[in-house]
Amino acid sequence: MSYLEGRVVLRDRIVDGRVSFDSHIRDITPLAETANRYILPGFIDGHVHGGGGADTMDGVAAIETLSRFHLAHGTTTILPTTITAPWSDVMDALRAVASVRERGVQNGPRIHGAHLEGPFVSPHKLGAQPPFNIEPTAARVAEAIGTGCVRVVTIAPELEHAPAAMQSFARAGVRVSLGHTTTDYDGAERAICLVCAAGGTIGATHLFNAMSPIEGRRPGPVTALMCSDVAYGEMIFDTHHVHPASFRLAERMMGNRLLFVTDAMRGTGEADGPSQLGGQDVVIRDGVVRLPDGTLAGSVLTLDQALRNAMQAGMSLPKAARLVSTNAAAYLGLHDRGAIAPDLLADFTVLDDRLQVTEVWVNGERQA
After folding, report:
1. Distance between CA 32 and CA 38 in Å, rounded?
2. Contact status, residue 156 vs residue 179, Cβ threshold 8 Å
3. Strand 110-111 relative to strand 54-55, pairing
């Protein structure tokens, strides 16, 4: 039996205590006084393209590299994410994620599966996605599901074949995330109803970004998603993609249905300068990634920084911890993690008094 002592961040409060564990948490014992460090549930990143110079589309070795990079920033469960590319390249990437997931990453996080972000996106809302968008035909959907590793799929619901595709993915247990879309409020409402009718879980890919904005007479998909009682929403909270006031609005509306992701690209963790995203030249400058035309192109965010950003925007540490862990676990149906409580997996991120990562534990074993 192992243990950690410190300020234990629970779902709704912080307590001084000792967490005893093997592969799972066995007990939490209150203490009168502990070391000035914080013990949080391990972070969960459901949308991450790369980091440390590696990209999901590059295959097995790259997936292992990016996974270890994000583990060092507190991520204990990760979903390597594809980008819009020729279909054969997307399938190769999914098979690579499946291979890494099956064998695991030594000294790395858990690979829950893949987020299939491209290529079922609108040609009119590509953002930084390369122009290889295609329609989600029944054959392509079946091929993607057949890899056994797709856990989240981004779909623009206005595409031909999208309604049937969303229901097929939902029935297969894949989270359907609306994104890179020109759909309006009514279109988003229809998509939410379709997915729920198929027994699925609905989400939003990087809420606010690559979708129509909220306007007085045109509420757009963001309003439908925030007002829903069941829809979850990813957010890239690097304060560049989403203003802190918009974050506070979404958090007030969605509560435990809002979750942070990084959308990190290969240059995350590297110095400012040129990099690549999906075969496109991008430039990293002052923590922002852009295409030559100025379009935001993913991020260089890590989840520990997202947590610190949330606290700077007024969130308490327990609320910030839910945004980087608990809420994602609920969205993904990972009921064995995402909080510090008896019988859950012993996945921990330990922070010092400056909220910097000092230790990361996966399955009761220290990895960083």
Report:
1. 15
2. yes
3. unpaired
pLDDT tens digits, one per residue of 179-211 = 999 999 999 999 999 999 999 999 999 999 999
- Under 8 Å between Cβ of 85 and 118: yes
Q: What is the DSSP secondary structure assignment for residue 263, as one 8-state letter?
A: -
pLDDT for 39: 98
Neighbours of 305 (CB within 10 A): 20
Give me the residue label for tokens 């247990």: 173
CB-CB contact of 53 with 267 (8 Å): yes
Q: What is the pLDDT of residues 237-256, one digit of tens each?
A: 999 999 999 999 999 999 99
Cis peptide before 163 (omega within 30 of 0): no
- C-alpha to C-alpha distance for 207 and 213, rounded to whole angstroms: 10
Output the six-digit token pair for 183. Answer: 């759909």
- DSSP assignment letter at 333: T
Question: Residue 217: which residues within 8 A CB-CB, separation 6 or more?
Answer: none
pLDDT in tens, 336-364: 999 999 999 999 999 999 999 999 999 99
Task: Answer whether 144's CB lies under 8 Å from 97's CB.
Answer: no
